From TrEMBL:
Residues 20-143, 157-293 form the EamA domain. PANTHER family: EAMA DOMAIN-CONTAINING PROTEIN, INNER MEMBRANE TRANSPORTER. This is Drug/metabolite transporter (DMT)-like permease. Belongs to the EamA transporter family. It comes from Paraburkholderia caledonica. The lineage of its organism: Bacteria, Pseudomonadati, Pseudomonadota, Betaproteobacteria, Burkholderiales.
Length: 308
């Protein structure tokens, strides 16, 4: 276990989860902020280039000593996570899928994780987990009801956010199962490797649409910094850290709270209005998360304990 892992284990899991939701939600706001200064794919490209360069001194020793099978597995998971999820959602939005609908599809992650664990790996899902997911989904729909529209994108473009969400769900389940059996990199090492394998993917995607050089403006630099520090180091880093300590059902269900927190971010930064239905939806999602969390405490890790 790395020193970072030991430090994280001293922090109560609910505190880590609260930080995860806060920083994970910042990613959607960061994308909106970035859209005023540069193409989304260009920001993503330089987000991962920046992280690859800045994180290397902190993970070089760990990467050099890691077994080759672990590096290969984590690289594939990284492609599923960053290239699959982010490229699917971002490309769908670029083709005309409304941002609210793309975000709603992305927030179906907890349901997809439980379905994959149940149908593919035959893991038992207690009724309380399904009830919690149903409440979380209902609350999320109430929160997002005014933000969802069909838009005018080509019919096939709507499959891109779905594919991205499923890609992240599959990577989440695979990561937790492989960690339980054969160990893994530290969260920081994972973030570095995921950033490295994402660079050529987003380089190709952006090059097919325009210039790949960074834009020399304060807005572009702020966009890259925002998404790299808050969304990646904060959101993704805490996501992988929480998965090392709890079940994928619990960690992803907590993300049902991401839409209302995103709206609070939008209110604080862009003065978008808040409403009572949003508060009601957040309360319902919170009850759903509580059901999953209580089951997780009572029964331990729902999907990984039997792998040990």
């Amino acid at each position: 276990m790395t020193p970072n892992s030991r430090d994280a284990n001293r922090v109560p899991l609910p505190v880590l989860e609260a930080g995860m939701v806060l920083t994970w939600s910042s990613g959607f706001v960061g994308m909106r902020f970035s859209a005023d200064y540069a193409p989304v794919l260009l920001v993503l490209l330089w987000r991962f280039i920046t992280l690859s360069l800045c994180l290397f001194p902190f993970v070089a020793r760990e990467i050099r000593s890691a077994p080759l099978p672990v590096l290969i597995r984590q690289s594939i998971i990284g492609v599923f996570v960053t290239a699959g999820y982010l490229a699917g959602v971002a490309r769908g939005i670029e083709l005309g899928v409304p941002t609210g609908l793309a975000a709603l599809i992305a927030d179906l992650l907890p349901v997809a994780v439980v379905i994959i664990s149940t149908c593919v790996f035959r893991e038992h899902s207690p009724k309380s987990v399904w009830a919690g997911l149903a409440l979380g989904l209902a609350g999320m729909l109430i929160v997002c009801r005014d933000a969802v529209a069909l838009g005018k994108a080509p019919a096939w473009a709507y499959a891109l956010p779905v594919a991205g969400m499923v890609s992240l769900a599959a990577a989440t389940v695979w990561q937790q199962r492989s960690t339980a059996r054969a160990g893994s990199l530290s969260p920081l090492g994972m973030l570095w490797l995921q950033s490295v394998v994402s660079c050529p993917v987003f380089l190709w995607l952006q090059a097919s649409h325009g210039n790949v050089m960074p834009i020399a403006t304060v807005g572009f630099a702020a966009s890259v910094a925002w998404t790299a520090i808050l969304a990646t180091l904060g959101g993704w880093g805490l996501y992988w850290t929480c998965l090392r300590r709890s079940s994928s059902a619990r960690v992803t269900s907590v993300l049902f709270l991401s839409p209302p927190i995103t709206l609070i971010w939008a209110w604080a930064m862009f003065r978008e209005p808040l409403s009572w239905p949003m508060a009601i939806g957040m309360g319902i999602s919170g009850l759903g998360v509580l059901l999953v969390v209580r089951r997780d405490r009572a029964g331990g890790r729902l999907f990984s304990d039997r792998l040990r």
